[in-house]
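hey
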């Protein structure tokens, strides 16, 4: 308690309390916040860490208009803390990220000595800008308070309410939650002197153009990372950028209808960051940061596209049949399908160990959505120029298929290798 208390020093004549309530539809924690005039007692600190009664809030600016800590309050929900930490480390900023009560982020700058509140506020505002969170609340909110007039300033809810049993804790560079002792270690690493704070380079760095000539927002996102849930939209925008920056012959040539259907395959190493629910869904082979898959792509005329979709579905089903795996095919409703897709079928294999179904492939008809942006056209039998239909499928996401093979092919003698794979493995059983 004493160590925690010494880190979060602040105004002595008043403090804040927060009584949690229900969570709103937007994910924000509802509750009652109020300022109490008086001194924070050891009992208040102890109850905060034990999660008893209202949570404690401290006003960072002191009676002398200085402070030992400040915070960027990022008020977003289902926030990707790991991506933010990656950006902070890439920019070499001495900041510590804590999860806020509503799932957003409190980004702290700690000092080893009191520094002017004006300096703390100015540096944090500049760091918020280069991190892409301009407009976020900054604590201390004031650079000067008049105690004699009754000013108290604004308090910030402290982390570690109920220690690690609550939702407010520091997050390390790997995205894992930190115990209180691990938080103290982070503080010892990143706490700054006044001279170090003044020396922090906060001029906005030139964003390396991952997409030369592309929109500034795309280049900035490529630098700071794409948050959870934005990957599909980001990849589509990247594809549009490449199409516009390096046009191919599709815009100058009309596809011959006699060439339909045009079928292609592609091997794709995939990389992704999965925030999950603090790691519970990203362990084992379920969701990997890196995995491989084979994509199947088809281009055809509108009249034939849904028959071709059925053919692609049958192709993926045939692969699973050859692997002798239990599977099911789901026709997705509009709310579950991607915004680019007119119709999507998902393939799921059964995980015997987890007793649940896991998606291993998805086959979609995009109709003219992609073709319109690619200017992918052909001439129909009447000589009229029409947009093609495009289709895409994955065949298949390999890690989950491997897990399903190991789980579903167990025999008393060992794990039986499907006949279709024996020529590749050179053996028919794993003992």
């Amino acid at each position: 308690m004493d160590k925690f208390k010494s880190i979060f020093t602040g105004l002595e004549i008043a403090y804040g309390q927060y009584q949690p309530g229900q969570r709103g539809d937007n994910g924000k924690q509802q509750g009652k916040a109020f300022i109490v005039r008086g001194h924070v007692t050891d009992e208040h600190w102890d109850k905060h860490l034990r999660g008893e009664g209202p949570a404690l809030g401290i006003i960072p600016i002191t009676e002398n208009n200085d402070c030992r800590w400040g915070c960027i309050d990022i008020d977003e929900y289902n926030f990707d803390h790991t991506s933010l930490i990656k950006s902070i480390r890439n920019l070499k900023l001495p900041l510590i990220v804590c999860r806020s009560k509503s799932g957003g982020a409190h980004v702290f700058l700690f000092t080893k000595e009191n520094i002017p509140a004006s300096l703390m506020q100015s540096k944090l505002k500049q760091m918020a800008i280069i991190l892409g969170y301009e407009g976020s609340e900054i604590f201390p909110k004031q650079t000067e308070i008049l105690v004699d007039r009754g000013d108290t300033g604004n308090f910030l809810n402290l982390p570690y309410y109920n220690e690690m049993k609550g939702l407010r804790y520091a997050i390390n560079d790997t995205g894992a939650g930190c115990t209180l002792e691990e938080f103290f270690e982070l503080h010892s690493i990143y706490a700054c002197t006044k001279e170090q704070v003044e020396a922090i380079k906060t001029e906005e760095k030139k964003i390396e153009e991952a997409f030369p000539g592309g929109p500034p927002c795309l280049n900035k996102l490529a630098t700071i990372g794409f948050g959870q849930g934005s990957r599909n939209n980001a990849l589509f925008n990247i594809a549009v950028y490449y199409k516009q920056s390096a046009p191919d012959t599709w815009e100058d040539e009309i596809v011959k209808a006699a060439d339909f259907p045009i079928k292609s395959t592609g091997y794709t190493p995939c990389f992704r960051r999965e925030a999950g629910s603090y790691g519970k869904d990203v362990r084992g082979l379920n969701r990997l940061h890196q995995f491989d898959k084979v994509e199947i792509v088809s281009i055809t005329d509108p009249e034939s596209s849904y028959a071709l979709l059925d053919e692609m579905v049958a192709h993926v089903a045939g692969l699973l049949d050859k692997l002798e795996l239990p599977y099911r095919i789901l026709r997705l409703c509009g709310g579950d399908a991607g915004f680019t897709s007119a119709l999507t079928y998902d393939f799921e294999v059964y995980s015997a160990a987890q007793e649940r179904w896991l998606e291993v492939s998805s086959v979609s008809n995009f109709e003219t959505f992609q073709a319109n942006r690619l200017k992918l056209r052909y001439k129909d039998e009447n000589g009229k120029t029409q947009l093609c239909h495009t289709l895409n499928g994955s065949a298949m996401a390999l890690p989950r298929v491997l897990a399903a093979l190991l789980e579903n092919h167990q025999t008393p003698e060992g794990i039986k290798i499907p006949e279709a794979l024996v020529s590749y493995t050179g053996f028919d059983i794993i003992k």
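The radius of gyration is 28 Å. The chain is about 30% helix and 30% strand.
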